[in-house]
Amino acid sequence: MNDSILAKVRPHAPAIAVLLVCMIVTIMASLFEQHHAEERAAMHASADATQFQRSLQQGIDAYLARNHSLAAHFSALDEAPGEAGVASFDAYMRSADGLRHNPGMSYLGYIRPTARTAPVTEAVPDPAFTYPYLYIFPHDARARSVASLDHATFPERWRALQQARDSGRSVVTPSHLPLAKVSRSPVVVLVTPIYDPKHPSSTVAERRLALRGYVFSIYYIGEMIDQVMGKEFHALFDLEVYDGEVRAENILYDGDRQAHALERDTGMPLAHRAGVDIGGRVWQLLFYAKPVYVQRYNSWIGAAILVFGFVMSAALAAGMLRWTRRSQARWNQRSAQLEFDTVFENHPAAVYSLDVERHILNTNAQALSEFKARKLDVIGRPFERFIVQDKQQAARARFEETLRGNAVSFNSAVADGDGVQVEISVIMIPVKAGRAVASVLAIVQNITAQKQREWRMQESRKMLQMVIDNIPQRVFWKDTNFAFLGCNKAVATDAGLAHPDEIIGRTDFELAWSENAHQYRQDDIETLRTGIAKVNYEEPQDRDDGSSSWLRTSKIPLTDMEGNTIALLGLYEDISERKKMENKLRELAHYDTLTGLTNRAFFLSLLERAVSNRRRRHAPLALMYFDIDHFKEINDSYGHDCGDTLLRAFARRVSDTVRDQDIFARLGGDEFALILDDVADVAVAASIGAKLVAAVRRPFRLGDRSVVVSTSIGIAFFEAGMGPDDLIRRADQAMYSAKRAGRDRYEVASSASAGQLIG
């Protein structure tokens, strides 16, 4: 059965094949005609929309020309127009039929800046001038209702007035409601500046001085577009106009009040999109074609092809169509290949073509020259063979990423024809045939010099940081906001930080020495303000852990090539040990090392000062001179160590007995002196002497033994004409008088003779 059917059909196979081919070709031709009709409709709609766009641009240019013409008229006047010219202006505009020739224009007029006569009591944009209109046409009731309004108080118009004044060009405002509030339809105002020709107006400053006023024209956006486009326009298109970007808040005009541009499914084809310039603003026009275009190009041709296609040379048409397509494809392929080969060979970088197996298919002359290779040695070899061994695996991984359809970039290194390692930057781009990657294009650049510069810069920075970290001084640098930009290790350690990088961005108030931060900030401010380095000054540093030190600091302002201060460099060193040594030397110079009392040299200077004060103030002054009785015997009997111990104990006991303001000193050996300042009379001095004698009588504990000693004291009062030496000599004589009298007592030298008062 089946064999018999095949036997019957086989002779007709060519006819069946031709019939099937004709049916397919006929359907394709019908569909092509339908598509072509749609394209013709779209082209027609685009051409019409372009013409309407040009009409709108021409209308806008006419508005600008009208403003410029009137501005030129006012500028040519000998002086700025005044109120007397209102009637003349109105007559001029009526004779010129100003609005009829400018469809869409509602008003045309002149704004004159008027100096304020009354003081300003509230915030206004321009305290010196108001901006009412002087002339307006037509001068109807609506215009008269806003005659006294200051245009500068309306933000959209004030910005346009300022921009026009400073730029010297016409400027249009954003859309806004009319001032008279008689309509909810938005308007725009076109403003053209007028300058006094007697004054220059090349710069912004000159234009501000030369300003006479402004020509302005007002347009209701909807009326302007409708009148410029004409009646036929609405039957053909729905127009949407946006001020700048296509956003809901920027819409100026929408023919059918349905914003197709803001919807995902517009339902209408976009026939044309363009921008028109109006006074420094760009209005985006979106033309959506109405069904009239599709209806216009619907025809009977598609049906005719279906009806007569099998009869009319379907085979010839099908063959011709296939031949045309094949010819065009071959031509496009040859052109594309020629363009690719030209770009490939003349590219300034080294370029390689690789197959999916990583083999090099081709390379340009720059690649051979850059890497000192011969084409014979490169073609057909795996590309990773030329990459240094430790980077081959990474290069293969990046190649595999490219085979997945992704462009990649990476750095690597190759050995050139001389065996020298070259640092390279590689970009791999997949070349697709359909969805599959057919080959890979590699663009390679030699970055060896760049890498060497980066390495030298890095080494230089490391060396500089090493130097800074190893110098004995602490070094830091701050920006002009007093935040740290960096420091060496010593500063980081002082700040309680583990690494110098941790200080970046911090201030003194956030570091271990925050207690001193206010003073440090004042020093920084003074240095940056004056631009003068503050060098080698001493300051304390108290840290949060309770430790403190003395620093010798220098702060230096750093400037750029133009002399602007850009940073602050600080250096300091810890001089705490030196300070301690200075204090120690000061103590050695002024105090006795055994007892801690004032030594002879310091005592003599203090006595001279006390005598000088006594001469100026006439205040009483007394001096006690005393020693330890039989001290030599104690030294001889118990040794010098025991004698030193007794001297220290003696000094402590006397210090505990005398007043705080009295100056007690050891002059040498067992000799001591006491300056009594502001002693009222002899009785007070005698009382102190008696207390000292009594205090010394108490036994002294020297190790495991108890020693009893006494003291002999001489007391002398300062008198007119005496010097320090005279006072010491008189007290010394009184002390020896006490010793001759039996020791363990005091003697007061009399003022009239050598006799003494014995206590």
UniProtKB/TrEMBL annotation:
Keyword Nucleotidyltransferase set for record: yes
Record localization: Membrane
Residues in PAC domain copies: 535-587
Transmembrane domains' residue ranges: 12-32, 300-321
Any Pfam family hit: GGDEF
Domain (GGDEF) ranges: 619-751
The protein's enzyme class: transferase
SUPFAM superfamilies the UniProt entry points to: Nucleotide cyclase, PYP-like sensor domain (PAS domain)
Stored InterPro entries: Biofilm_reg_signaling, CHASE_dom, CHASE_sf, GGDEF_dom, Nucleotide_cyclase, PAS, PAS-assoc_C, PAS-like_dom_sf
Record domain CHASE: where: 126-286
Its EC number(s): 2.7.7.65
MF (Gene Ontology): diguanylate cyclase activity
Record-linked SMART domains: CHASE (SM01079), GGDEF (SM00267), PAS (SM00091)
Main localisation: membrane
Record keywords: Membrane, Nucleotidyltransferase, Transferase, Transmembrane, Transmembrane helix
Domain of life the protein comes from: Bacteria
KW Nucleotidyltransferase (keyword) present: yes
Identification of the protein by name: Diguanylate cyclase
